[in-house]
């Protein structure tokens, strides 16, 4: 997935007013301020109340549902790559909660919803601390180890 594909997906979401934050590898790159590796997908945490809008935006770019694990996530695929949508329910204080597998949940405290930059463009993204939390609980792949090293370097 190229950075131009990421920008096209984010533009499409923004045109429909979808609130989102980028996580995963592209989110790490936004925190670092530049693309640091190749990416297969774009992870987007979005307002669950706007999931239909997000799906409409991505369908308009040729993305089709490949994996439906709602309410946890839905993965959409197109020739240009994948977008993983993670629906997050927000309360009145701005704290978010995403359904996880087997009844678990993932918290999105308001302070975890930050901003980074890619190619000079501001990108809503998840904080270093939240990204570190989301990189636990599984055996890391080489790209995860790369991302973890970058995240840890941002704390030092």
Describe, in plain words, how this protein is organized in 3D.
This protein is α+β, with helices and mostly antiparallel strands and 156 residues long. The chain has helices at 3-15, 24-32, 51-59, 128-134, 142-155; strands at residues 20-23, 41-47, 64-69, 73-78, 81-90, 96-99, 105-108, 113-118, 121-126. It has one domain (3-147): 2-Layer Sandwich (Beta Polymerase, domain 2), CATH 3.30.460.40. The chain is built from five helices and nine strands, in the order αβαβαβββββββαα. Strands 1, 2, 3, 4, 5, 6 and 7 form a seven-stranded mixed beta sheet that branches. A two-stranded antiparallel ribbon has the order 8-9. The protein starts with a helix and ends with a helix.
Secondary-structure topology with pairs:
Elements: H1 3-15, E1 20-23, H2 24-32, E2 41-47, H3 51-59, E3 64-69, E4 73-78, E5 81-90, E6 96-99, E7 105-108, E8 113-118, E9 121-126, H4 128-134, H5 142-155
Parallel strand pairs: 2-5
Antiparallel strand pairs: 1-2, 3-4, 4-5, 5-6, 6-7, 8-9
């Amino acid at each position: 997935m190229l950075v131009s594909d990421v920008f096209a997906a984010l533009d499409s979401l923004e045109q429909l007013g979808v609130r989102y934050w980028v996580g995963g590898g592209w989110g790490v790159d936004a925190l670092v301020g530049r693309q640091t590796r190749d990416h297969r997908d774009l992870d987007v945490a979005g307002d669950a109340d706007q999931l239909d809008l997000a799906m409409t935006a991505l369908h308009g770019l040729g993305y089709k549902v490949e994996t439906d694990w709602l309410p946890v996530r839905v993965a959409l695929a197109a020739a240009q790559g994948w977008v993983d949508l993670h629906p997050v329910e927000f309360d009145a204080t701005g704290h978010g909660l995403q359904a996880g597998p087997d009844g678990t949940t993932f918290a999105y405290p308001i302070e975890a919803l930050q901003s980074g930059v890619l190619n000079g463009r501001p990108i809503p993204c998840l904080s270093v601390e939240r990204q570190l939390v989301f990189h636990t609980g599984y055996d890391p792949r080489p790209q995860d180890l790369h991302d973890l090293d970058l995240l840890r370097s941002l704390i030092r």
